[in-house]
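Service request form, structural biology core

Requester: graduate student, group of Dr. S.
Request type: structure prediction, single chain
Budget code: on file
Notes: please return the result as structure tokens.

Sequence provided:
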Amino acid sequence: MKNKKLLLIIGGILLYLASTGISFALFHYLGGTAGVLVSPLKDGRGIVIDPNAPKTEACPLNGEMFSRAERQLWETRRPLTVMIENHAEARPQSGLSKADVVYEAVAEGGITRFLAVFYCGAIAQEVTIGPVRSARTYFMDFASEYGDYPLYAHVGGANKPGKANALGQIGDYGWLSKGNDMNQFSLGFPVFWRDYERLGHPVATEHTMYSTTEKLWEVAEERGLTNADEEGNSWDEDFLAWEFKEDKDSGERGDVNDIEFEFWLNGADYAVNWQYDKENNQYLRFNGGNSFVDKNDDSQIKAKTVIVQYMKETGPIDELKHLLYQTTGSGKAVVFQDGEAIKANWEKDDRQSRTIFTDSQGKEISLNRGPIWIEVIPSGNEISY
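Core staff response, request fulfilled:
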């Protein structure tokens, strides 16, 4: 009897090894790559992401092409917008290279902050994001372009009564009752956590808050906010996508190689330089004179399109030095893509309307497919290119 059991055990092990070997061989025969073909899902949907699959599906946020399986995943969710700081002590940040669209504007004192919009580029893997910082009203205006109830992740926010009262406005917009507001104060660990040693040396507490795309999307699902809400309303029913186009051929690309600007005149640490990589038709970001990288993989931040958008800046409006930007109405902009600088106008009717960029003839400018960075600078500032 013991010998029979032993033979059965040995036979089972051999069968397992044989089946594993056959699966591995078939996987490679069909073009897979060991260790890369993974699913980020933990809920049993079982969608598998093959990095070698044809890129046939356009991301509605920035036009970048992805596989059908990736589209199947993002169509179960809604855009995730996250406040990420840009204090010099917070660099390098984590996660910005996976954002589809990034907005940058001054938070206070000439120090900028980002609103990173995650949807398509972060769908195939769990992305660590941070340092996460507090809410500002004008960044909420940008987030509002991604559906009535975009997921909005932040750590507290401006709450002094008045026009800069971001936390009050979150309630006014219905984001608290709907559940799309993701304030760290109400979520806590393990959705958010602090990493005091991420840079190998201590930093101030405000530079230490982190989360991940998967943890935040899981919270949204628990709250009934997937691609649609509990009433069946899809996030993109009224979403207006920008127009997109293919890159210009290499021989048709321009020679605008360096884009340089400051948000405030005394802010050298926050001066931005985008350098054009003509061969790959993309822009490489430098900040404060240094390469601007993603700590997750040490890759330099790149964009296919960089838009410098001029807005009226007001403030500081209170003793906490809060600012306001006129996000609605119209104004000037410069769109950089294909090595060219296109003088443009922008228009946004109200908080939930899409900002549209048009050329001198009033025609909407089609943007290159891929990551888009929108740099909001005070009206009257100069940019060099």
